[in-house]
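Replying to the earlier thread about multi-chain prediction with a worked example.

Input:
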Amino acid sequence: SQTIHQWPATLVQPVGSPLSLECTVEGTSNPNLYWYRQAAGRGLQLLFYSVGIGQISSEVPQNLSASRPQDRQFILSSKKLLLSDSGFYLCAWSAISGGTGELFFGEGSRLTVL
Amino acid sequence: GQQLNQSPQSMFIQEGEDVSMNCTSSSIFNTWLWYKQEPGEGPVLLIALYKAGELTSNGRLTAQFGITRKDSFLNISASIPSDVGIYFCAGPESGYALNFGKGTSLLVTP
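Result:
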């Protein structure tokens, strides 16, 4: 069966520090991968999605970037964190391209920027 | 992208009551998905709907894909304390991602 894991689960970082959140999927090949952010426990905002290695689409221009160095690995990064980057970050995968695939989420990573 | 409006924003009910929530879209969807998120965790898919008029159940949960293809409904029968969480509707954004509603927060008292 397919599984998705992301880490770290919790992160407290000072303003201006770098960020790296990692997500891996097991049990499937060529998944679509996504990063969402959830602020204040509501509303899921799509940040990035990827349909293949090295292919990244950004939905919202901001202080973050994403990379997909391997088929089942998706990384969310920042060179310098802002206070507004605080939130709950969710990685997800889907098996079907074309916009009708169900998304399956990881456990989430809570980032607090101080 | 398409706007998804969920209502109500929150519900506070007693154990055993039935719950009904809905989601409307500004444009036509070919798919409706319902997720539940518990505190500190990622959303979990509850029900997927792929055809207008479709009615699908998952235990005490029942969801319907509206005939107009612009709305969907989720009902929970005989609620229990573990139903607590935020319920999200979602539909495909143009391309590959899902667009989510803002969620309905459900609290159930014993």
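The mean pLDDT of chain B is 93.

Feel free to reuse this layout for your own posts.
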